[in-house]
From TrEMBL:
It comes from Salinimonas iocasae. Residues 11-130 form the NAD(P)-binding domain. SUPFAM superfamilies: NAD(P)-binding Rossmann-fold domains (SSF51735). Coiled coil: none annotated. PANTHER family: OXIDOREDUCTASE HTATIP2 (PTHR14097:SF7). The lineage of its organism: Bacteria, Pseudomonadati, Pseudomonadota, Gammaproteobacteria, Alteromonadales. Gene3D superfamilies: NAD(P)-binding Rossmann-like Domain (3.40.50.720). This is NAD-dependent epimerase/dehydratase family protein.
């Protein structure tokens, strides 16, 4: 029996997004989950016996036009790419900063109860590394946004799990993950590689249910 909460997921076809949607479909506090996607979701992605899931194909270049879908309790933003996949720094920033920032603005406009997104360990607007600088600038922009209820970011290190595409460094990380997770303790614990399911669980924990 489903509960009464509603959720919107952005980035549901990515590593964390897929793990997250699977958990939300199994979470009896939710009655419906909307996923905004670029292309139709393959049926093999999710087991949805209760018919909670509503995938909606949109044009992210006109993201502002889809504000109505943000009329939910919780927004989960798993949008993200790499500079290599995006093709340029500008294209990377459009996805990892602009799209996520617009999502937070739309969530605020619809007065969602909480907004949770994926950042990165080491995110810092003053970083000399472009990736971490963009992540830090986004954190600052969202956390300083007035009237956005309960915004929270998860800051994973290297993400582990089965991807559709191969990433060289993450392939190495997968093999060394057991060692890293054992030796990175104390103040270094935040740098441990994180499995997608762990990040997804943390995102759910950060939402406001009361």
């Amino acid at each position: 029996m489903s509960g009464n909460k509603t959720a919107l997921v952005l980035g549901s076809t990515g590593l964390v997004g897929r793990a997250l949607v699977k958990k939300l479909l199994a979470d009896n506090r939710y009655k419906s989950i909307v996923c905004l996607v670029r292309r139709p979701l393959p049926e093999r992605y999710f087991d949805d016996p209760e018919r909670k899931l509503s995938p909606i194909v949109i044009d992210f270049s006109d993201f502002q036009d889809y504000q109505g879908y943000f009329s939910v309790d919780h927004v989960y933003c798993c949008l993200g790419t790499t500079i290599k996949a995006a093709g340029s720094r500008a294209a990377f920033r459009k996805v990892d900063f602009e799209y996520v920032h617009v999502a937070a603005q739309l969530a605020r406009a619809q007065r969602v109860k909480s907004f949770v997104w994926i950042s990165s360990v080491g995110a810092d607007a003053g970083s000399r590394q472009f990736y971490l600088r963009v992540k830090g600038e986004l954190e600052n922009a969202i956390m300083r946004m007035p009237q956005l209820n309960h915004a929270a970011a998860v800051r994973p290190s290297l993400l582990l799990g089965s991807r559709d595409e191969t990433r060289f460094l993450e392939g190495i990380g997968q093999k060394l993950a057991p060692l890293f997770r054992k030796v990175l303790v104390g103040r270094f614990k935040k740098y441990r590689p994180a499995y997608a399911s762990e990040v997804a669980s943390k995102m759910i924990q950060l939402q406001r249910f009361s």
